[in-house]
Design brief:
The protein is an alpha+beta fold and 250 residues long. Helices cover 25% and strands 24% of the residues. The protein has 2 domains: 52 residues, Structural Genomics Hypothetical 15.5 Kd Protein In mrcA-pckA Intergenic Region, Chain A (Roll), CATH 3.10.290; 179 residues, Pseudouridine synthase, CATH 3.30.2350.10. Bound molecules: uracil (URA).
Amino acid sequence: MRLDKLVAELTGMTRSQARDVIVKGRVCVNGEVNKTTAEQVKEDSDVLTLDGKRLTFQKFVYYMLHKPAGTVSATQDKDAKTVLSLLTEEDRKRRNLFPVGRLDKDTEGLLFLTDDGMLSHKLISPKKHADKLYFAKLAREITEEDIKLFASGMKVDEELTAMPAELRRLSETEFSGFLPSGGFAAAVTLQEGKFHQVKRMFAATGNEVLYLKRMAMGGVRLDESLAPGAYRSLTEEELRTLQDSVRSEG
Ligand code: URA
């Protein structure tokens, strides 16, 4: 098998991330640095290391995707483009990947893709308290009253009484580069993820979400260098942060 393919399969990295670590001289085959991405290696007998650490088969794969507007958070859809269609064919076929929770079709931002059902379940369970941070562009400025309502756990509509959430105003400096410029912006931190939750919460205060972007989940922030539609595997540190965010009781 090619060296870049084996590194990708063992680590869960994308093929281009695997090539990058190889050409940087971070990969050794049987103790020797090997920078030849197309080198033929034997997956059953050659010993590979990355930064000195032995590579063994990873049970699960974890990607961070910058979801663009216009894609649906599903593995298949008969009309719309799915988030999985943004992966290369090789990455898509490697495992049975699925998105961790859903973002609306018009929402952008951080979406994890994995084949780890247990971690995914915990991250979307409100009982586990994993924070989800959203930046929203709004029709009108938020008030002190709105902030108190969000914090108190408001009745949103007949079906939903939201858990307490943190709402704060965002200055143009804070949101520049993340939201379209001008207008009124706010940051919301929630621990649940009911259908259209952020939009429904603002609607309940007589406001309207004009644009929504998820910036962080479980303590892991969207990588600013990822353009909409781009993705990469999580670093070991990011994965640990995610796992720690749901390790609490409940
Ligand atoms: N809340 C919403 O209203 N939409 C999303 O996509 C995510 C949270």
